Amino acid sequence: MTATTDGSAEGAGAGSESTPGAVPPGPAGRTAGLAAGPPAPPPVPPAPTRPGRAGPRAEYAPPGVRAEYAPPGVPARLGRPSRPGVGRTTARDTVRDAVRDTARDAARTTTDLRRPPDGTRPGVYEAAARATRNLLERQDPEGWWKGDLETNVTMDAEDLLLRQFLGIRDEATTRAAALFIRGEQKEDGTWATFHGGPPELSATIEAYVALRLAGDAPDAPHMSRASAWIRAHGGIAAARVFTRIWLALFGWWNWDHLPELPPELVFLPPWVPLNIYDFGCWARQTIVPLTVVSALRPVRPAPFALDELHADARTPNPARRLAPLTSWDGAFQRMDKALHVYRRFAPRRLRKAAMASAGRWIVERQENDGCWGGIQPPAVYSVIALHLLGYDLGHPVMRAGLESLERFAVWRADGARMIEACQSPVWDTCLAAIALADAGLRPDHPALVKAADWMLGEEIVRKGDWAVRRPGLAPGGWAFEFHNDTYPDIDDTAEVVLALRRIKHPDPARVEGAIARGVSWNLGMQSRNGAWGAFDADNTSPLPNKLPFCDFGEVIDPPSADVTAHVVEMLAFEGRASDARTRRGITWLLAEQEPCGGWFGRWGTNYVYGTGSVVPALVAAGIAPGHPAIRRAVRWLESVQNEDGGWGEDQRSYKDPSWAGKGASTPSQTAWALMALLSAGEREGKAVERGIAHLVETQKEDGTWDEPYFTGTGFPWDFSINYHLYRQVFPLTALGRYLYGEPFAPAGAHPATAGEA
Question: Active site includes 538?
């Protein structure tokens, strides 16, 4: 992937067949179904076979049932070839042909768009047409969209540390990574974890060490400012556990001063507290390989000392008083001390068997592109763990893993190299398809059909870790990434269904089958409280977050308002608004409304995102725009609108609720607020008028918007994300809905009474 010099372009591909159309009508009787009750559910078609996806990987086996180990090293493991252009540019001839096709089709954009209603505010239709044209130009020839996924410099620092650990760090990569890291440093010598955010100690330590690897002298002004700030804020001893693990790999920190993480965890059955399935999938994929690393405690020769990063080099790890035994912290601190004692007496055969089991667990979950879960951190630790277990760098599992990490690299025009923590093609593609359809692109437009083809090819038809809690549920649905069969997610599945429903595909039976399987899987993943989490059902144990080891962010996957809202909206679109399971989700959402009138946003920042997700879902499911909950949400959004007409919310709202709805205006957050207000029947209101004007006035001539602020979330506060395509897809969706109305039903035309829950 490449970016323009202004940082605004980030599609991996160059173009596609493209031109625009209208939102298709939904299934027959959809609106009537709201009053008459749900239709009889159709039989769920069997999942199609998917050549190349499974490779030779052993079939999934629930914990306690040993899967037949598939020896790594079979070339067919990689299955489908890696996507052209993922992390790099596509082949030159493909780009040239795609650009030619895009230029041809973009010229027809405005003629293919639906005409706006009479009396439309001047400039709105033109802004939507420009944004449509720009988004069409970003589509990859295969049919997908993907914007850069920007996080923070710890990804880049840890990539260099991994290469140093494995002995494969090269000058060109180091120079490019250092260029990016230096460019993110603040004037005071620190690094933040999101644009405009406060200094962050662990990120600053890791960035500093990476620049030392790149040859930056410790007495250079930018380095001395950083080290002075680190010392003033507690030094390495005050950093998070993950940072200290990386330093321990080179002897810069003592393994004895880290929480113990025994590999015997993999033997705990799912009903035992703190088994690996009590952790969210992202934490689970990280913790299992780290149990191996923790057990073996490797130390590579350090290329330099880091005494300058200790508050007191003579006492790098000052003693700390234990918390009271009656507190969770105190109890787990003492448990960790007991585990350190256990380490000295752990039966060698048991420990060896545990590490071997962890190794099998890791290999069995390697995806066809060589990665693990499509996420960079688990991939990094899995590579280290397998290497410590004896896999040499030439082994096909290791080679594929390292090649997959290369595809997380974004090479920028200035020569800098940024590492993505993850890649979001399925998410970006379904959101782009929704935006284009809602903006008036005809449903059988080639770009939308190609997107549908690609999404249908990404359907997941095998069981993954989610089956531990739902063993009888048939597979279906979609993941976030190019390759992640182990962890499809509920949010992507809901949005893909909503996208497919907007597209007129030449093979409707294929679409209906995929949708039926996705809807059935999503319904089966409902948690006991009536809501939905992202990857697992009922992943709500409070214990994992209490562990001394788990100081790196959220490590469980409880239901959230934004995911639940997207599922409810999808179910309403499928004519299931009156289904008892949908109504349970609605009841949960209404109970989760904050006193201010908004909803908490787990995967987007924050109350603006949660509210922008929930209000359209409730209205689509039959809650009248006059319902008290909808009115409270409208009043709150109006109260936090900025003077410039936009909306924004800073990541600080995750730590301090007084920041709720406060921050510099951004295109994506403005769009979320508008989507909520439009669904609530506020099209003619002053707030909507000002918000639409803000989007039109801040749009650039090429149809794009600037958005340096981070509006996405991996872990609330601890890991923030700037999805570079958000600034395009959400404003276009809002403009389209302003022009043509809600895709579900006209605002105010819902049969539910104002008091209905």
Answer: no
* pTM of the predicted model over 0.90: no
8-state DSSP, 20? -
Q: What is the pLDDT of residues 556-567, one digit of tens each?
A: 999 999 999 999
Rounded-to-10 torsion of CA 260, 261, 267, 271: 90
CA distance 168 to 403: 13
Query: Among 399, 393, 317, 372, which Cα is nearest to 165's?
Result: 393
Q: Residue 232 is which amino acid?
A: A
- CA neighbor of 576 nearest in space, from 43, 45, 24, 37: 37
| 122 band by pLDDT with thresholds 50, 70 and 90 | confident
pLDDT at 45: 66
Chain Cα centroid distance, residue 71: 31
> 692: which residues sit within 8 A by CB, 6+ positions away?
121, 124, 674, 734, 735, 738
Instruction: Quote the CA–CA distance of 428 and 653 in Å, as a whole number.
Output: 25
CA 134/CA 579 separation, integer angstroms: 39
> How many whole angstroms separate alpha carbon 37 and alpha carbon 576?
8
Kindly state the DSSP code that residue 83 receives in the 8-state scheme: P
Tell me how crowded residue 355 is: count the other CB atoms within 10 A of its CB.
Answer: 20
Contacts of 448 (CB under 8 A, 6+ apart): 21, 433, 436, 437, 441, 442, 502, 503, 504
Residues facing 557 on adjacent strands: 539
Q: Residue 121's closest CA among 675, 683, 642? A: 683
Mean pLDDT across the chain, nearest whole number? 86
**Sign of the alpha-carbon dihedral angle for 569, 574, 575, 576:** negative
pLDDT (mean) for 544-553:
80
Tell me which H or E stretch contains 720: strand 719-723
Half-sphere exposure of 296 (CA within 13 A, CB side): 21
Please give the angle made by the CA atoms of 428, 429 and 430, to the nearest 5 degrees: 95
- HSE on the CB side for 58, CA within 13 Å? 17
Q: How many helices (H) and strands (E) does the chain have?
A: 25, 5
Could you tell me the two tokens for 562? 């934004």
Strands (E), 83-179: 149-150
What's CA 462's distance to the chain center, in Å? 21
Please indicate whether residue 202 or residue 553 has the higher confidence score (pLDDT). Answer: 202
Q: Cβ neighbours of residue 263 under 8 Å, at least 6 residues apart?
A: 291, 292, 294, 295, 351, 354, 355, 357, 358
Helix H or strand E segment including 672: helix 667-679
* Residue that wins the pLDDT comparison between 38 and 326: 326
**What pLDDT is recorded for position 484?**
94
Placement of tokens 């182990």 in the chain: 486
The angle at the Cα of 675, spanning 674 to 679, to the nearest 5 degrees, equals: 110
Secondary structure (3-state) at 744? coil
Q: Give the up-direction half-sphere exposure of residue 177: CA atoms within 13 A in the CB hemisphere.
A: 34
Reference 729, options 424, 432, 496, 500; nearest CA is 432
Query: Residue 643: CB partners within 8 Å, gap ≥ 6?
Result: none
Determine which one of 148, 491, 562, 579 is catalytic: 491
**pLDDT at residue 110 is higher than 70:** no
pLDDT at 220 over 80: yes
Measured CA to CA in angstroms, residue 405 lies from 79, 82, 371, 420, 578 at distances of 17, 12, 7, 9, 45
Rounded Cα distance between 123 and 132, Å, is 14
